[in-house]
Amino acid sequence: QVQLVESGGGLVQPGGSLRLSCRVTVLNLDYISIGWWRQAPGKEREVISCIDARGSGRYYRDSLRGRTALSRDDSANTIYLELNNLKPEDTAVYYCAARPSYYCSDEAASYNDWGQGTLVTVSS
């Protein structure tokens, strides 16, 4: 089983930036891809991006394209999602999830383990 803990959320003004962290507890991160998702109030959960087991990132959300960056620190078992030029519509709970595969996916059902989420609020 994989345990994931997100952190780094908070209140930020429009145009601001945040770096979210996903600390992963697992015997071996080499065979796991980590996805980032978010769920805004009253909306369905949606995929943002994913970094695969080899460290390659994929970005799925056009509304965030150019405003996000993924990185992975295997020595710390931590995946980072940087969010820039944040907008009020980015307000949501952000989740990371683990997929037991070398490859990413945009299907939530393929992710076996999820963190509790971290709230990002973009407001002036």
Describe the global form.
globular
Low-confidence stretches: none
Q: How would you classify the helix and strand content by structural class? A: mainly beta
List the secondary-structure elements in sequence, H or E: EEEEEEEEEEE
**Helical percentage:** under 10%
Distance from N terminus to C terminus (CA atoms, Å) equals 40 Å
Count of alpha/pi helices = 0
Mean pLDDT: 94
Radius of gyration: 13 Å
Structure description:
The chain has 124 residues and is mostly beta strands. Helix content is 0%, strand content 48%. It has no helices and 11 strands. Strands 2, 4, 5, 6, 9, 10 and 11 form a 7-stranded mixed β-sheet that branches. The chain is globular. The termini are far apart. 30% of the residues are buried.
Features:
globular, mainly beta, 124 residues, single chain
Helices and strands in order:
Elements: E1 3-7, E2 10-12, E3 18-25, E4 33-39, E5 46-51, E6 57-59, E7 68-73, E8 78-83, E9 92-99, E10 113-114, E11 118-122
Parallel strand pairs: 2-11
Antiparallel strand pairs: 1-3, 3-8, 4-5, 4-9, 5-6, 7-8, 9-10, 9-11
